[in-house]
Description:
Layout (H helix, E strand, L loop, with lengths): L3 E4 L6 E9 L3 H8 E3 L12 E9 L2 E11 L10 E8 L1 H13 L3 E2 L4 H8 L5 H12 L3 H11 L2 H13 L12 H8 L3 H14 L1 H4 L4 E5 L5 E5 H17 L4
Parallel strand pairs: 1-7
Antiparallel strand pairs: 1-2, 2-6, 3-4, 4-5, 5-6, 8-9
Helix pairs in contact: 4-5, 8-10
Amino acid sequence: MSTIAAISTPNAVGGIAVIRISGENAIAVAEKIFRPFGEKTVAEMQGYTCAYGIAHDGGERIDDCILTVFRAPHSYTGEDVCEVSCHGGLYVSKRILRAALNNGAVSAEAGEFTKRAFLNGKLDLTQAEAVMDVISARGKAELRMAEQLREGATYKKVRRCSDRNCGVDGLPRRGYPRDRADRHSRGSDGDTCRARIAHSQLRQRTHYPRGSFDCHCRTSKRRKIDTFQLSERLRAEHCHRHRRHDP
Length: 247
């Protein structure tokens, strides 16, 4: 993938601005636009280290900056990442971004850093979506919920359910006849999914004791349903459905 760059801080005047560069050539791009005051070059910097120096464009000084280096895969995107922290003027930050674009980077699209984190396995889909929830949180409760999503709470619950219900081959674990599983695995994806769903519904007989529970019917009246009768009805529907597929 190409090396991307963008201003990661709001498009407004502030104390500091951060220009983020990510990609396999991020170190090379940063080395062309940043000159540290120390003896080490940008290429010699280790991950999670900073250097104080000058941002320049073709030798013309722009601003005093701090460069932070993150080495792959230990970065937000999973790639080499360099972040230039400069004074928060609009012109200064845009000038440094333009210097990065002139030296091999391309402008990042909205959300592309998080997209790359997802593609590189640093975040799952729910965590990637939660990043915006963290940014837009307006209170303690919203922030706490967003942080739980970002830390993978939803993914972990779904994964536990998936591991409990399905085997390595993706078929339900308990009581599924091997010959029937092979037959459906050769069929269409739709038939396979319907077979798995029907079998999962039948498993409620194992998980729920014989008895009854309340439910709402379409007329919004509560009524009792016997779990044993419900399981038997599902079993009959399941057998009737798959009898049509048997040779």
